[in-house]
């Protein structure tokens, strides 16, 4: 397990640093491999960084991004992460955004579609941006979800799984499609971005307790092969 802590004065400074890191990693990928592949968390924390990144001077025609997880809702639904990403990154002319769900958000059809899409993108992500909830979830790897063990299984190669959070989060009471822990860890740069003291306390618990069934984010933090860059601000 290895993690590098990046403390920031406030959420705005965190967003600036995150945007700079994303830009740097994308530029490196374009120079070294001629393309870049990103997996980007939903939620509120990273979106200012996505907007700043979209305004930068990358050759977006060679960049592909996808959500780390998606709510099983129609693509025009307000809770759709892809919709939010599309809006935040509207300035990134030529960016390819890959969906994890079908247009209607049907959970089982979406799981199959996500797996088929990922089969066409087998390369390591150049950057994965993750958030964390106060229950220790990351992406849509929710504690207590019936599919959590499957989503954490390092032997899985299908890359995406339907997750039915139990209980359903009141702010987003939907089934999800989540990239699996092993697919999220198949990455050159892994960033976990969180703010506030409550989440800091949960992070400390997850760092101290490697059992991902209590805090699924521990599956990322304690992965033997990964170095996780934790960006935190009060
Ligand atoms: O689909 C989502 O919402 C995210 O992937 C989810 O895992 C998010 O990163 C955390 O819930 C933190 O969200 P905030 O950044 O809004 O606190």
From TrEMBL:
<keyword id="KW-0378">Hydrolase</keyword>
<comment type="pathway">
    <text>Carbohydrate degradation; pentose phosphate pathway; D-ribulose 5-phosphate from D-glucose 6-phosphate (oxidative stage): step 2/3.</text>
</comment>
<protein>
    <recommendedName>
        <fullName>6-phosphogluconolactonase</fullName>
        <ecNumber>3.1.1.31</ecNumber>
    </recommendedName>
</protein>
<dbReference type="GO" id="GO:0017057">
    <property type="term" value="F:6-phosphogluconolactonase activity"/>
</dbReference>
<comment type="similarity">
    <text>Belongs to the glucosamine/galactosamine-6-phosphate isomerase family. 6-phosphogluconolactonase subfamily.</text>
</comment>
<dbReference type="InterPro" id="IPR006148">
    <property type="entry name" value="Glc/Gal-6P_isomerase"/>
</dbReference>
<dbReference type="InterPro" id="IPR039104">
    <property type="entry name" value="6PGL"/>
</dbReference>
<comment type="function">
    <text>Hydrolysis of 6-phosphogluconolactone to 6-phosphogluconate.</text>
</comment>
<dbReference type="InterPro" id="IPR037171">
    <property type="entry name" value="NagB/RpiA_transferase-like"/>
</dbReference>
<dbReference type="Pfam" id="PF01182">
    <property type="entry name" value="Glucosamine_iso"/>
</dbReference>
<dbReference type="InterPro" id="IPR005900">
    <property type="entry name" value="6-phosphogluconolactonase_DevB"/>
</dbReference>
<feature type="domain" description="Glucosamine/galactosamine-6-phosphate isomerase">
    <location>
        <begin position="10"/>
        <end position="222"/>
    </location>
</feature>
